[in-house]
Amino acid sequence: MHIVFSSQYDKLARLVKDFEPFRNLWVTASDWLRWHESWMNDPLMSIDAETVEKNVGDAYKTMHKSVKIFQEIPGELLAMDPPVNFWWYSWK
């Protein structure tokens, strides 16, 4: 009997890789909501412009990459593009 353990790890590695765009989108949306709350409600003096600029730039790159990746996936994920554009471009 020959048992191949590496194939199970290969499948796991593939699953992790395939899930990454979804994780990135989820984490970026979560971060954005937290940042937005802070930007709207914290004292203006406590907001660091350089940090905001970096966070917005990083979020933009992640969202742009996510939209491109999800456009390649058939199904309802294409429906996310207009809300993402509205959400993103209202701030950009």
SSE sequence, one letter per element: HHH
**What's the total count of β strands?**
0
Largest sheet: none
Class per helix and strand makeup: mainly alpha
The number of helical runs is 3
Cα separation of the termini: 60 Å
Helix content: over 70%
Low-confidence stretches: none
Can you give a write-up of this model?
- The chain has 3 helices and no strands.
- The protein is mostly helical and 92 residues long.
- The chain has a domain of 64 residues.
- Helix 1 packs across helix 2.
- The chain starts with 5 loop residues before the first helix and ends with a helix.
Write a brief structural summary.
The protein is built from three helices and no strands.
What attributes does this structure have?
single chain; 92 residues; 0% strand; mainly alpha
List the helices and strands and how they pair.
Blueprint: H1 6-41, H2 49-71, H3 81-89
Helix pairs in contact: 1-2
